[in-house]
Amino acid sequence: ELAPILTIDGPSGAGKGAVSARCARALGWNVLDSGAVYRSVAAAALERSIAADDVAGLVSLCGDLDLVFEPGPDGILVRLDGRAVDERLRSEEVSVMSSRVAVQPEVRAALLALQRSHRRPPGLVADGRDMGTIVFPDAPIKVFLDASVRERANRRYKQLKDKGENVIFSRLFRDLEERDRRDRERAVAPTVPADDAVVVDSTRLNLDQVVERVLAIVRDRL
Ligand code: C5P
């Protein structure tokens, strides 16, 4: 029997990482941060000067990603080749590059098996854009986590500020809007809720309230 899956999809900055980690800890399940999968490809491409449209170069990077995820108290912890890489993967440069490599269908196809390999007992919380639609279409529990662009930009701004990064709000807002559009309007795996997903709008909810709501959905569907 396949392990149960809770998919949490939505635009960037909606709080998917924090919500996924908290739900995974509460349920005792594994966690998959698919954004970090694309970010890892992007970071490796930047390191090796592989362009966003060099499909063959990108696909060969996808073959040797050694990624391990763990639900931390504030979000999903990511290890690439045994090293903690959260900070590098969250940089603006890697963020922008990740949504550019993610439009390539060959790259997405090359990452399917890797993502599906994270489905292990007792269960999986999978965080991303197309978890409920493409990667785990048979998941029994699907959530689409949304929030207004302004609210998401505010949250990201605070996060980066807290880390001591020098960020300009207007630039971050514009980058987020642009990335949203690219993710929503792309031909493959656009960021849209699955037909059977429950949409949760977190614009006016705090983290505890969102987690509570998602766990109630899980209890309801298991
Ligand atoms: O969720 P996160 O912001 O970390 O994702 C980074 C980028 O990876 C997104 O902008 C999106 O283009 C891409 N992505 C994707 N499919 C996923 C997860 C992320 O295309 N399932």
Automatic annotation (TrEMBL):
One of its GO terms (biological process) is pyrimidine nucleotide metabolic process. Keywords: ATP-binding, Cytoplasm, Kinase, Nucleotide-binding, Transferase. It is found in: Cytoplasm. Gene3D superfamilies: P-loop containing nucleotide triphosphate hydrolases. GO terms for cellular component: cytoplasm. It comes from the Bacteria. InterPro entries: Cytidylate_kin, Cytidylate_kinase_dom, P-loop_NTPase. GO terms for molecular function: ATP binding; CMP kinase activity; dCMP kinase activity. Its EC number is 2.7.4.25. ATP binds at G10, P11, S12, G13, A14, G15, K16, G17, A18. It catalyses: dCMP + ATP = dCDP + ADP; CMP + ATP = CDP + ADP. It is an enzyme of class 2 (transferase). Belongs to the cytidylate kinase family. Type 1 subfamily. HAMAP family: Cytidyl_kinase_type1 (MF_00238). This is Cytidylate kinase. It comes from Wenzhouxiangella marina.
